[in-house]
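Can't paste images in this forum, so I'm doing it all in text. The chain is below; anyone willing to post the predicted structure tokens underneath?
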Amino acid sequence: MRSHTEYHRVDRVGWLRAAVLGANDGIISTASLIVGVAAASTKPSEILLTAIAGLVAGSMAMAAGEYVSVSSQADTEHADLARERKELDADVVHERQELAEIYVKRGVARDLASQVAEQLMAKDALGAHARDELGISDISTARPVQAALTSAVTFAVGAAMPVLMVAISPANRLVPLVVIASLVFLAVLGAIGAKTGGADIIKGTARVTFWGALAMAATAGIGKLFGAVV
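Text version of the structure:
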């Protein structure tokens, strides 16, 4: 009999979310910064310097933000596991009944649910409760360092695209070229993210491109307003 191997994408959720967020934010924030500053009639050399500064600062901010955010999630998970470990030590019978009740609510017959709970707890009591009571698994568990590094690197890669356009674009066409190129980059990013995650490619592409265009339009308007005032 031929073996059947299933291929799932759910194990990519952690790093894929951080990667897409980082690259998307890198393109949008840097391109918006460039368009906003350029709309105030700043010199090309100053625009490039601003863009590079935005790339570096944004990468560090993404790394710090992701690390702090995911670390908070990890702290909560550790606290819940510690509390569950104490409850298992204090009253394992009650915890076995509690686990069996979870399976009953999912549609398993009560006798069978009790057997399943007993066997799973005999192998790994804390793991069974972490997975089925707390919703913590190897796939979903928080990984602060991974999230921070992924976000920082992908932000820098995303931000480098509009920065490169500033470096190679003529001054009189800098803004339209940066906008067009950034929207193309965002569309490609949306398609790659959707494809990697198994989602609808058209929907993912349209969503990312729309919000990118909106962000650049808003900063261009602010740049024009304050540039005119100055």
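Residues 11-229 form one domain. The chain has one domain: 11-229.
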